[in-house]
Amino acid sequence: MKNLSFEWLVGLRYTRAGKRSSRNSFISFISLISMAGIALGVAALIIVLSVMNGFQKEVRDRMLSVLPHIEVFDASGVIPDWKQTAKEAEKHTSVLGAAPYVDAQSMIINDGVMRGAMMRGILPEEEPKVSVVATKMKAGKLSDLKEGAFNIILGIELARAMHVGIGEKVTLAAPEGQITPAGTIPRLKAFTVVGVFEAGHYEFDSAMAFIHLNDAQKFFRQDAPSGVRLKIKDMLQAPQVAFELSHALGGSLIARDWSQQNSNYFAAVKTEKTMMFIILTLIIAVAAFNLVSTLVMTVTEKQADIAILRTLGASPMSIMKIFMIQGGLVGLFGTALGVVSGVIVALNIDVIVPFIERLFGVQFLNKEIYVISSLPSDLHWPDVWAIGGIAVVLAFLATIYPSWRAARVKPAEALRYE
Question: Which of 7, 14, 120, 230 could in theory staple to 70 by disulfide, Cβ–Cβ 3.0 to 4.6 A?
């Protein structure tokens, strides 16, 4: 304390202002409210962004249980030599596995019920290299897809909609019909249901089905697979790896990563997260600018002290520093309190939310509606530092006007009625 400048000593004294009068006590109370407001805003922003990150990660992981990290396909629609393409792609240090696929639209028919579905032809022995769909099976096994048997695995919601179970048959109608003397008729084929999977993402559970690669080529009349699916070490590096593969593979081959396949969804999530960040930052701004009224009241109360300091030789800049230190410390303490409490809640939300649900007998997430029943949280430390930095900067900006006003106090006028 002895080595601190007098600006710091006075600023610290004003921060922990005594209670010699009711006015001093009121100013101290307002300072505490400002500090609590900043802490609450910072904590709320950290918690909300962590929950949004958790939802985004949960949905992304469920999508990638059936979607590839990267797809490599030819502009013609088929890859004649998929094994060579897979071999070339696996030379990249980030690629962990490769498997062929056939993608096509089809209609599924059963007892008058018709549903559109995305049919994916796969090789059961190769598929685990690029996806975890084998671990998402609710009934049957991926290996039940036998070549030539024309078996099919349905998403759980699709199976419910078609009212079918294991061992029952459904009819697939190909988009391209057969031309006969009587005209064009749909090309139909009966498939046996041998499995049901649940990815946890309604879009896929209600509209996706798997069949054997060779059966898919025969049914959709393709001479080769549609492309090759790749799995990489870090899914977040998929755009960069896809770009590098596009140049490395050359020719007419195109590499498309998972974010491009679902660009609308991820763009909407990013926009929502940005808007939520802005809205909650305004809460911090309101709390930070409460410091303005606090410091203005302090300046009015301390005019005599300011005048005495000026007569003792303190410069206007020193007076500004005193009140900027006072406001800055309130903002810094509030931010620190908000960061600590926000991080603690975000890291333990899986414990706190169930406790609140049991305490009040409510359920925040209905599994039948939201698929997941627990509130996910994914704390990103860069978000924490950004939120803390913004709160401190806003608190500092709030001190400028009251400090400038304090520096303009004229000693003679301030002491006239003392």
Answer: 230
How far is Cα 191 from Cα 167, in angstroms, rounded to an integer? 10
Written as six digits, the tokens of 183 are: 């005209």
What pLDDT score does 418 carry?
56
Q: Under a CB-based contact definition with an 8 Å cutoff, are residues 65 and 132 in contact?
A: yes
Pseudo-torsion of CA 84, 81, 143, 196, nearest 10°? 110
> For position 388, what pLDDT does the model report?
92
Residue 91 CB partners (closer than 8 Å, separation 6+): 248
Tell me the average confidence (pLDDT) per consecutive run of 10 residues in the chain, 418 residues long.
Answer: 64 61 62 85 91 84 80 84 88 91 90 88 91 89 91 92 91 74 72 91 86 92 89 87 85 83 76 84 81 79 76 79 83 92 91 84 66 76 91 88 80 62
Quote the DSSP letter at residue 236: G
Residue type, 19: K
Report, in angstroms and rounded to the nearest whole number, the Rg of the chain calculated over CA atoms.
32
Element (H, E) at 183: strand 183-197
Going 312 to 314 to 315 to 316, the CA torsion angle's sign is negative
Two structure tokens written together for 91: 């030379």
Please tell me the distance from the alpha carbon of residue 19 to that of residue 25, in angstroms, as a whole number.
5
**Residue indicated by tokens 């520093």:** 321
- pLDDT, position 55: 83
Rounded Cα–Cα distance for residues 173 and 186 (Å): 6
The closest of 301, 408, 406 to 31, measured between CA atoms, is 301
Q: Which 8-state DSSP code applies to residue 235?
A: G
Distance CA 305, CA 310 (A): 9
* CB of 156 closer than 8 Å to CB of 110: no
Tokens 């997260």 map to which residue? 273
The DSSP-derived string for 37-74 is HHHHHHHHHHHHHHHHHHHHHHHHHHHTTTS-SEEEEE
CA distance 228 to 230: 7
Contact 283, 44 (CB under 8 A): yes
Alpha carbon 352 to its chain's center:
20
DSSP, residue by residue, 112-177: TEEEEEEEEEE-TTTGGGT--GGGGEEES-GGG--TTT-EEEEEHHHHHHHT--TT-EEEEEEEEE
* Strand residue runs (E) in 206-346: 208-212, 227-232, 253-257
Q: What is the pLDDT of residue 236?
A: 81
